[in-house]
Amino acid sequence: MAFISSPISISPKLPIFPKYSPLFPSPLSFPTKSRKLRIFCCLALDHQQNCSANVEPSADLRVVFASGGTGGHIYPAVAIADEIKIINPNAQILFLGTAHGMESTAVPSAGYDFDSIPAVRLARPIFSPQNILLPYRLIKSMVQCYRRLRDFDPDIVVGTGGYVSFPVCLAAALKGLKLVIQEQNSVPGIANWVLSWFADQVFVAFNSSIDYFPKHKCIVSGNPVRLSVRRYVSKAAARLHFFPSYVNSGNLEAKVVLVLGGSLGANAINIAMLNLYYQMLLEHKNLFIIWQTGVEAFDEMESLVKNHPHLVLSPFLHNMDLAYAAADLVVSRAGAMTCTEILATGKPSILIPSPNVAEGHQFKNAILMADLAGSRVITEDELDSTTLRIAIEEILDDPSLMADMCERALKVAKPHASAEIAHHIISLVKMSRAKK
């Protein structure tokens, strides 16, 4: 267990969370009264069930992954699939997701087969008129998912949460297939909360998450991190990739800020950066910025941002290993997978949790990151060019603070979570076959 010698002051505008209710999880229901939060200790992350490192590959292993919507659901599934293929190169893997979601391009580009299904999104609040036809649409979706599963005949189905995975996993339970789910956030979403009662195993990132699931099914594995992100790249090589004419291995004074808005972008972060980037680059000659705007906002940002040799503007960063390796500081939303990658790569971070994510996941992730890794948290209400600039300069100007944040992040990281989950999945299939 890790302890903090002195309390961390977190933004007074973070909401006070009521007792978790999966039926009424909307952040809009949170009290608006401000409160000063102080955290004196963090969660124990050293507990996990034993996992054999010598699991033999199962012959003709067939696995279906149900994931989609955002990168936070897709990339954990890809990370687990990668590890399964390492253990069993002959494994047949199929991803099921929506035809128009980012999974339709992200999964094939990762080298896996993809098939589209109709998914049903739950409108909030739960008694919204939009949900009147929800039961009918869900049953219709489950029927089609059942047919896909019947045709592929998998040994096991892996769900990584979100509305895309829900009908697939329910159909798997109905068909009597082995089912496991993986929860990335400190507090689960409604889909995984419901599915946990049908699942054989539940993989969670944090010890505290066990309280929301059937405890005997839980395995504290940490969050899966993509092999591409874990791949070692030297800082010098990464910086040469982004700034070939201006940064080289001898430029030890350079400071690189990596700005991420999640796979879909973040307007609030883009606006704050738009109002501060140029002045900061003018005043700090050794500052470099890698800025992922998100695909939808890129054209607008590109038209507004002035060209600068120390600035890289991109709609989406495909080489995240290079981006993290080049960075001294990460400015980001507080999605579970981004937080996991920040820990795995040992990067100091400034987190701006999205208020628009269901169940208030990002607020809770940000609080954990502040506790575990010393991350600075700025709410979207507080976010502007001034508060963001002060936070960036405070960290970059203090080498001892940066070193401490890096050390704390690496200390609690679980870089081999995807391998552990893959071994458990294969073991579960082997035990199931042995009983037949």
TrEMBL record:
Residues 256-409 form the Glycosyl transferase family 28 C-terminal domain. GO terms for biological process: carbohydrate metabolic process; cell division; cell wall organization; regulation of cell shape. The keyword Transport does not apply. Keywords: Cell cycle, Cell division, Cell membrane, Cell shape, Cell wall biogenesis/degradation, Glycosyltransferase, Membrane, Peptidoglycan synthesis, Transferase. GO terms for molecular function: glycosyltransferase activity; undecaprenyldiphospho-muramoylpentapeptide beta-N-acetylglucosaminyltransferase activity. Residues 63-203 form the Glycosyltransferase family 28 N-terminal domain. It comes from the Eukaryota. This is UDP-N-acetylglucosamine--N-acetylmuramyl-(Pentapeptide) pyrophosphoryl-undecaprenol N-acetylglucosamine transferase. It comes from Vitis vinifera.
